[in-house]
Amino acid sequence: MFATLFALLLQATTGGSVSVMGAAIGAGLAAIGAGLGIGRIGGSAMEGIARQPEAAGRIQTAMLIIAALIEAVALFAAVICLLVATAA
User: Fold this and answer.
1) Three-state secondary structure string covering the chain
2) Which of 42, 57, 63, 82 would you call most buried, defined as having the most Cβ atoms within 10 angstroms of its Cβ?
3) Are 20 and 53 in contact (CB under 8 A)?
4) pTM score, two decimals?
5) 24-49, pLDDT tens digit by residue?
């Protein structure tokens, strides 16, 4: 099934647009990964705050720092994908 889908995708693209399609898929995966990571961090932080309310300030600070690092990695991945797409 995947081989057939891959063959159809290759037929739909011509020349250098395979790299553009790959860059678009890579950027999409980076965005999905960042969304899942930040969602998991938020859920875990809320669970930690519910278990230990007196540590809410420290948990929120750590959560924001980690979320910013995840966003930076996602932005870096999107920039790399754009560079790959424009280099083709």
Assistant:
1) CHHHHHHHHHHHCCCCHHHHHHHHHHHHHHHHHHHHHHHHHHHHHHHHHHHCHHHHHHHHHHHHHHHHHHHHHHHHHHHHHHHHHHHC
2) 63
3) no
4) 0.73
5) 888 888 999 999 999 999 999 999 99
Residues 6+ apart with CB under 8 A from 23: 81, 82, 84, 85, 88
Q: Which amino acid is at 16?
A: G
Tokens of 65: 């720092």
Amino acid, single-letter form, for residue 43: G
Which residues does 81 contact at the CB level (< 8 Å), separation at least 6? Answer: 23, 24, 26, 27, 30
Structure-block tokens of residue 1: 């099934």
